[in-house]
Write a structure and sequence with these properties.
five-stranded mixed beta sheet, three-stranded antiparallel beta sheet, globular
Length: 182
């Protein structure tokens, strides 16, 4: 997978502070987990099948978080590791405590990277996400899913923009000479 030129994350996270304008720091459900609801800094690490998945050493792709009032906050994030693995973070904070779940996404998962992105992204950001993340080769490939998503969520002009970007992904680059036939 391509790791050059990682786009900025897409984030829809509400930031909250105390009534005294102090930051809100939450402990996670395990030792070492932390979340700052005022800055959005989340530190969660898990070992899964001998591999470390760590929010501090992964690229945030999409984040959605909302304060619901009465001491409750929900956070959902999608991350990509430098070696092209993906994981999904869910955090729920209530006055009763904090629950954190980190789920590794494998190729065999029913709910994969693109499906999670589809749930998290509002339609206004689909074209940029598909162009900058998917068509750049930074996400698992599922062209049929992407075409269906673009056609169902986007106006014709934006859908066409995604289709052109998708087609350009497979076009030979002008700066690379064609392979010689043997």
């Amino acid at each position: 997978m391509n790791t050059a030129n990682i786009p900025a994350p897409i984030s829809y996270e509400t930031r909250v502070r105390t009534i005294n304008d102090e930051e809100i720091h939450l402990p996670g459900s395990r030792a070492g987990d932390t979340c700052n609801l005022s800055t959005g800094e989340v530190n969660v690490a898990r070992m899964v099948d001998g591999v470390r998945y760590d929010t501090a050493h992964a690229t945030l792709i999409i984040g959605a978080g909302e304060y619901f009032g009465n001491g409750s906050y929900g956070l959902c994030r999608l991350y990509r590791t430098d070696d092209g693995k993906f994981f999904h973070l869910l955090m729920v904070w209530t006055l009763a405590g904090t629950a954190v779940d980190l789920t590794v996404i494998t190729a065999n998962d029913d709910l994969g990277v693109l499906q999670i992105a589809q749930v998290l992204l509002p339609d206004r950001d689909v074209v940029g996400f598909l162009r900058d993340w998917y068509c750049a080769g930074l996400l698992p490939i599922d062209d049929d899913f992407v075409k269906e998503w673009a056609e169902s969520a986007l106006p014709a002009d934006e859908c066409q923009e995604v289709m052109v970007a998708l087609g350009n992904r497979y076009s030979p680059r002008a700066d690379v000479p064609p392979a010689a036939d043997a």
